[in-house]
Amino acid sequence: MADAIRVENLFKSFGRFEVLKGVSLTARKGDVVAIIGGSGSGKSTMLRCINYLETPTAGKIIIDGEEIKRRADGSPAERRQIERIRTQLAMVFQQFNLWTHRTLLENIIEVPVHVLGQSRAQATERAVELLQRVGLGDKMKSFPAQLSGGQQQRAAIARALAVDPKAMLFDEPTSALDPELVGEVLNVIRDLAAEGRTMILVTHEMKFAREVATHVIYLYQGRIEEQGPPAELFGDPKSERLQQFLRTVA
Fold this sequence. Notes:
Shape: globular
Mean pLDDT: 93
Number of strands: 10
Oligomer: single chain
CATH topology: Rossmann fold
Strand order of the largest sheet: 6-7-8-3-9-10
Radius of gyration: 18 Å
Structural class: alpha/beta
């Protein structure tokens, strides 16, 4: 199976503070890679570097066989390449990042119409289908403020799907939700995994990672402390740090 995303020896520093210290990751097409670890371990920074929301200090990022071209300072050499690749890597954030002055339908057709050049009719048809799929078919004309956090996050997932991405990046998609709303979002992500969607998921939901992921990475202070299949990582962790982490979050 071909690699959808490959990260090689990734470093990221903010000033003198080194957040990522040479991490590598491979997600083949159809993989669900879960990244776990304590606060400050570099999980979200790693995810944000993959689509250049943060500029890596060093390392290679290869998306569907295409390496992102970098200048000597790490910044992208071709802005158009980054913009194009970002449409292939849909990202779902902790905060929903919906446009508050637009309805759900308008939120979802924005990028397909204005960035991808789809006709409004085509984008609208697809948006209706996606909203129905995430259980929001009756909320198309609602504004984000009229919805629960779980509904807003499901709408954000629908918006991410609207560009038909090659892979999806989830940055702790349930961390801003009340506990009773977490399940409805995880169910949507679980359905996407069952479809064979390629996903990299930063999460603190250990049970979900164990059930859904094909590969789990445990980050500790910017390095990969342990990685492997979920049954192995959760069932028989080798690292004492991982053992302690799993006891803490149990």
